[in-house]
Structures are given as C-alpha cells and as structure tokens.
Amino acid sequence: MTTTVETSNLALLAKSKCAKIQSILKEIEILEKQAAYPNILIVGETGTGKNLVAQAIHELRARHKTGGSVPFEVIGCNEIGETYFNAERARFFGNTKGAFTQATQAQTGGLEKARKGTLFLDFVQYLPRWLQYDLKRALDTEKFRKVGGKREQHLNTQIISATSKNLREPKFDYGLYLRLSMHKIALPPLRERQEDIIPLAEYFLIQAASETGGKPKTLSESAQSQLLEYKWPGNIREFRSVMRNMGFMLEHNVIEADDLMPKLS
Fold first, then answer.
1. Domain 190-264 in the same topology as domain 9-186
2. Are strands 152-154 and 40-43 parallel, antiparallel or unpaired?
3. Domain 9-186 has what CATH class?
4. What are residue 40's phi and psi, to 5 degrees?
5. Structural domain 190-264, CATH architecture
6. Are strands 143-145 and 152-154 parallel, antiparallel or unpaired?
7. What is the per-residue pLDDT for 246?
8. Collapsing DSSP states into helix, strand and coil, what is residue 136?
C-alpha cells in the first residue's frame, strides 16, 4: 500500500503547534486577505526553513489569484560574483543581445520573470554593494532597464528576501534594508519548537515512505527522547536529513535511540 503525504509548504507550516509559527501564519494570512504584497524579509538561523516560508507565502498568494499562474523566481545572492558586473546585473534586470561580452543572446531577468508574482532573494546578505544600489534605485522608481536596453519597464514584483545575518551593518545599504523589510518575519530555531519535533519527525518518515512505497517507520520512546534532547544546530535542514536517512536506510521498522546516535554526534 502506497503512503501519501501532503507536500504543500503551507500545509506543513499549518501543522506546527509552535505559537511563534502560528503567529507568523496569521500575519501572512492577514496580508493576503488585504491583497497587500509588501516586500518581506525573513530572518533566521541557517536551516530554519526560510525558503519554505517564502514558498508558503507564495502558495497562499497563488491560491487567491484568479486567472493564470503566479510566477516564483529565485536568485541565490551567494552565487553572485564580483568579476562580470553586467552579467550579474542581468540576473536581476535582464540584458539585450550584445550588451556586454558574454551577452550572446537576450536574457530575461528575475524582476521581469517574476512580474505580478514573487522574486525570492536567498542569502540576501551576500548581495554585492554595487548591486544593492541598482536594486534600491529600481525599488525607489518602480522602474528598471535591461542591461544595454533603453526602454524602461514597470516594476510589479513582490520581493521576499532571506538572511541568517544582521543586515543592519555597514556593508549592507540601510536604505535597501528598509525597502526589503517592509514586513519582517523572524523564524525561531528548531530547539525552540519542542512541540513540533515529534510531529515533524513522523511527517518526514511518512514522506520517505511515500517515495519508497513502503510502510512508514516509527519512533521508540527512547528515540523520541533522543530527538527532543538534541539541540539541532542545523535546524530543520539537519533534522529532515536525519529523519529521511532513517526512513530510507534502516532495515527494521522501529527506530531506536542507538540508530540515531551516529547521526547526532
């Protein structure tokens, strides 16, 4: 018998029993009911699920949209280099053919691809200073041009940014910070979500079973205690990896504390 599992990020958040997560969900729902799409900054330790929350916000927006799909584009700011400035600008703004040496063809940038939808800037703390000014100018004027282009395009995109660092520091433009953090969401680390640990473990075990077509593995009392005692420095990312490994690799059906120990050391 095949096990099915809800894969929606919104549904996963809704399962949370943590008061802080439920409060975040209420904030998101209020914004969506008002059809308000401010730029949102998600702050949290590495692995707390910032991308999951960004996608959940988008899912809720798409659910309320009638007629057509709502685009969701991602730019990993940690991947932006410091060598080919115009090529990196093109990630955001696009470029015309021949605009710079590497521009062998025209390219559509993230802001245009995400029009009437969401542009998710992951690891926004790594956005280079020179590109911060370009993005701030686009947000100020609500217009932008492709690299090498002359025609101005209207900016009609919600920007959701994620960071594990404090953006209130000199290397990050304060004006851009204000424009990206019109609404701010602070995600708690997993160690502060004790009430979610066992339900999440069961969810990830069911998810693993749905992929293998097998029966979900269960947790003994000693294994549950082990999960609750561990501090999870890698947060949800580490937790998910451990539980899926248990679901895929163990030959027996009941997970014991001894099974977990090598993964938590």
1. no
2. unpaired
3. alpha beta
4. -120, 135
5. Orthogonal Bundle (1.10)
6. antiparallel
7. 95
8. helix
